[in-house]
Amino acid sequence: MYQLINVGGASGGEAFLLLGAEKTALMDSGYSFSAPKMVENIKAVLGDRPLDYVLLTHSHFDHACGSAMCRAAWPEVKVVSSEYAANVFTKPNAAKTMLEMNESAAKMCGTELDPAVPTQLKTDIIVHEGDVIDLGGITFAVYEVPGHTRGSICFYSPEEKLLIGSETFGVPSDGIASVMPCCVVGYDMTMESIKKASMLDVEHYLVPHMGEIHGQAVRQFFYDAEYWTEFVKDMIVSGHLAGRTDEELVQKYKEMFYTKTWAPKQSEAAFLVNARHKVPMIIREQIAS
User: In this structure, are residues 182 and 168 in contact, taking their beta carbons and an 8 Å threshold?
Assistant: First the structure.
């Protein structure tokens, strides 16, 4: 049996601590600026137990940056990521962009990034499709699910029928749609990833940024994820063919999905960065095909 506890230090930088019988793992690690609070939250739960793993679903700043602080707090911790994410962490331009986005998110939360907080990211264990992370009594198989990033992965425990989700599948929305699509680098690959995950025997699903859902809610989520991802694709393609500019389509997408519930979890600037990648990507991919 497992426990999952949200130990994130700020809204939008959620991180979930999994307590296994033998080992512990942090599922994503939130922002840099809120990492000290996250570490404080983790220590309050673990007590004398160590943090054994940080499992990263992808390389974006709101999911990966807190891992540097985890390494400072627990020097023996093993950070796990895809090969793609591990390569991103070595690039100076990526580090610069993530630092800037952390500073922007900190301002949105009414604070600032402490210069003393470590920000250098590093992967200890690179994983690929089919690899297994053994936490003792609970194992997680790695599934490659590109779409949100090219290196997005998720983790599935067959013993617990637990899926540690990927943003590739989308996130719950309180706008006109029930799921906000998150296909940033590829529509077709996103749909393939959603279908791959929906075929797993999942009773418990950890939704990125949100928390666990169970049973029929899991099956409904994946049905809605596929439906609304296709809906947005059709909206963008039809709008483009009708003569709308990319920026007009970005703003329409924002009207649909940048809701009062989502705004505290993602700055408008970060939301628009993703949307401005998504719209032209879908047009190129779908018009060309």
Answer: yes
Which pair of tokens denotes residue 230? 């296709």
175 band by pLDDT with thresholds 50, 70 and 90: confident
- Which single residue is written with the structure tokens 């390389």? 59
H or E element at residue 131: none
Q: Which of 206, 162, 191, 169 is nearest to 282 (CA)?
A: 191
3-class DSSP state of 102: helix
Neighbours of 180 (CB within 10 A): 23
Question: Average pLDDT for residues 46-64, to the nearest whole number?
Answer: 97
Instruction: Report how far Cα 230 is from the mean position of its chain's Cα atoms.
Output: 20
- 141 close to 155: Cβ distance less than 8 angstroms: yes
Closest of 216, 215, 224 to residue 173, by C-alpha: 224
At a CB cut-off of 8 Å and minimum separation 6, what does 207 contact? 165, 171, 172, 213, 221
pTM of the model: 0.95
Q: How confident is the model at residue 1 (pLDDT cuts 50, 70, 90)?
A: confident
Supply the pLDDT for residue 261. Answer: 82
CA neighbor of 59 nearest in space, from 23, 20, 106, 93 = 93
Phi, psi dihedral angles at 26 (to 5 degrees): -100, 125
Cβ atoms of residues 147 and 181 within 8 Å: no
